[in-house]
Batch of 2 targets.
Target 1
Amino acid sequence: MILEIKNLSKTYGDKQAVNQALKGVSFSLKKGEILGIVGESGSGKTTLLKLVSGLEKPDAGEILLDGKPLSAKRTKDDYRRMQMIFQDAVASFHPRRTIADSIRETTNSLLGRAEKPDLNELSERVGLSKELMERRPGNLSGGQCQRFAIARALSVHPEILLCDEITSALDVSNQAQILRLLSGICRDTGTSALFVSHDLAVVSNLCDRILVMKDGVIVEEGDARQIIHEPKEAYTQKLIESVMEVKDVRERVQKYWTIRTKDFNAIRLNELHDEISDRWSAELNARIPCGKALDVLDAGTGTGYFAVLLGREGHRVTGIDLTASMLEEARKTAELFKVDACFLQMDVQETDFAEESFDVIVTRNVTWTLPDPGKAYNEWYRLLRPGGILLNFDANYADNVRNHNQKESWVKPKDVYGHIGITKELSEENAGITLAMPASRHHRPQWDGILAKEAGFSEWGADEEVGKRVLREHDLSDAPLFLFWARK
Ligand code: ADP
Ligand code: MG
């Protein structure tokens, strides 16, 4: 254990207004581990990090670093070993100094003047050019400042990074990059981290183990998957639900898949090791011209399942998806199966590719989640070369939801293939998204034919037996899988 926290307490305020921010918190952190700490605003997360870092003193309790209790008066080296990174990265730098000067100041004070920071290496480590270090914080973006804040922390070779909401002020794609950066650093250097966030989706993606805090105490602790899929506490359930309370439907889909990344990836990885993937390959190969490498777009690639199958056949595959955490898993899976595929974060309805970039577009279980499937068909038509083919595998999932609603018994998540082990809340969010989407108001694949015609496709057709052949007993009776294909 690199860090052990024992019964840490902290009260703010005077006799008139006492506010017990932390009430006897205990936990430990392993070397190289990134431990997630979630909880609503005011639950005591920042207070905890401040006590650990030494910015504030506890009223009671003990902090052991590498087995040794830290004394009330911290040494310079104690400060060096644990580095705090804050939400407001811009404000964490001196406004009138360059980033490089700020970093030198940190190493001067904690390592001594003799040791100069390697600014080249530090900027490389956080993926920015060294020239940017000569700027002042006001002339950098929030994401760039946050990367340099990480660089500054690394400049003193810490053992533990204390991260307080470090992605909360960033947009989704910047968030994902910072998370990837942080996990890479911890993996490569063996640095440990306490990663605090109010956003369970973010924490569950990055961390294997999570502490849930409420009113200054830890109410639940466990493996990330267990916390999300089998929360013991009602409070944790509420945190999961609050993740799902997003108005914008696109963001809602993204949140849903972000939180489901781990379990979904497990299902797909299983399939890749199962003969089910041979059956999928056979279906794909039967419809894709063989014998030469084609440019294939896997639209809504998820964790890269089709991308891997088609990459194995020698095609040049690009996988796109809205959800950064899914793409992360896709890259790992492609690496695992030694497939050279490219994965990019994009909306399948509106991509950045030039027209006529692909020979084949494959998509599975995506159209039902789209706010505007007509727009997607137009975009897929634009991206295909003349004669190119679209293979769209999907199902009338809304039928499932409606039938189960009629029966007034919610389908037990574990009974639904693809929902194995997910919570009732997530299952209901899935149903909510399904019913909110235009696809649920149409009968498919007939409707797909109308959309394909409007988009300009020259011929199309459907195969409604594909689920029986590929998924067999796993195919959902109320919403069997179909293939809708269309040729440009
Ligand atoms: P979180 O980071 O989870 O939002 P905090 O640790 O910031 O929670 O706050 C925990 C509790 O302590 C809150 O009730 C907050 O109002 C209180 N608190 C935090 N800092 C101070 C302070 N400097 N003075 C008084 N109360 C504080
Ligand atoms: Mg806080």
Target 2
Amino acid sequence: MMTQIACHRGARLSAPENTFPAFEAALAQGGDVLEFDVRQTRDGVLYVMHDETVDRTTNGTGPIADMTSKEVDALDAGAWFDARFATTPVPRLDAFLDAFKSRAAFYIEVKWADCDAIAQIIHRLDIAAQCYTCSFSEQMHLDMLRAAPDVAQMVHWRRATPETLIDKFDATIVEFYACDDAKNDFTLENVRAAQAAGLATQVYSDAVSPALFAQIRDWGVGCLNTDHVSAFHAFRTSQ
Ligand code: G3P
Ligand code: CA
């Protein structure tokens, strides 16, 4: 089994995160799954955006939830990263999914949005089988489960166990966090426990480490969620 690559906000080291150029770069670098974040405007339009405010990743200011879709569509989400990306828009969720559905799977992280509206888009585009969702919000998890029970749910291992939240959310995928501090939960014991429970496995890490990459391969992890798409793709294809 070759470990899949989930591209964290696209190839965000190469292009402005959560934009079409970042997702194009992610696939060009060998990515399989596009990870992105969903928020919505005051008038209920869904967008691909990580932060609660537009300040860091656009030329605007303020919470996206307080803005209209007309205001968000007018934002520049690329110039902050590099002048050559100037005028890159904030993607609308429906246009983004439609544009990439024939070439990628989707890891949908719901930050805060109307999950019925997300589910309507998924079902209209007939892409439920190539999507999985996750959220740091318990309410968003439960809303997605109700609105789209045909979409796989992922939970973070550190916030769940097979006996508790995994059951509650009907999750079939768990994500481990591989890092150098106390938050690390990517251990062989944990991975084997997840696999024994029949769960698919994913690791999130911002490290470029041959030792980590080898563990991911040797422990049979299904997917790496990373900023370093080309580095892991080079590792897995060199084996
Ligand atoms: O699975 C969580 C990981 O994708 C991190 O997401 O939105 O905190 O960068 P975020
Ligand atoms: Ca995310």
